[in-house]
Amino acid sequence: MRDTPDVIELTAEDCERILEEGRIAHIASTSQDEPYVTPMSFVMIDGDLFFRTGPGRRVDALRASPRACVEVTILREGDAWESAIFWGDARFIDDPAERSTVVAALLHKYHTDTVLGASTPSIVPTDLPIVGITPEEVAGRASGGGLTSKTRPGRL
User: Fold this and answer.
1) Quick one: which of 114, 75, 68 has its CA closest to 91?
2) Domain 7-145 part of CATH 2.60.120.40
3) In degrees rounded to 5, what are phi and psi of residue 99?
4) Which of 29, 30, 32 is nearest to 40 (CA)?
5) 74 in Cβ contact with 82 (< 8 Å)
6) CA 156, CA 148: separation in Å to the nearest integer?
7) For the chain, which residues make up each domain, given as ranges?
8) What's the maximum distance between 2 C-alpha atoms anywhere in the chain?
9) For residue 109, what are the CA distances in angstroms to 20, 63, 65, 103, 148?
10) What is the pLDDT of residues 33-83, one digit of tens each?
11) Whole-prediction pTM value?
């Protein structure tokens, strides 16, 4: 796809910036032979995406089939948007040092959020699954002129 006044293809550097700045991602996996998409908080560490999750359908899906697609959208002033998407294989993090690094990075990233504002590493549950994904193929787009009938995500 070429750039148009309505949609702009982003560079790899733009996509990396979106992944670093983004606050909420959506992960798509396959669960019970169906697509399954859920939102999540996340952090990028050395180019890899990490998140913590509780037991349930998302964990079961990623354990059964680790292939996943992750999307991050940032809304900009005037209803403009930027979006990065990538594919990769989910892996569960068992190493205590790596788990500690991820939890500390998540707390640092979200320390101003109401939900995590009072959290400290000593009171955060340590037994929750932590998942890492190395981006394999990254792509991104941005609206050229804000939300219009041609640039709304999904062309709504």
Assistant:
1) 68
2) no
3) -60, -45
4) 29
5) yes
6) 9
7) 7-145
8) 50
9) 10, 26, 29, 10, 32
10) 999 999 999 999 999 999 999 999 999 999 999 999 999 999 987 778 999
11) 0.81
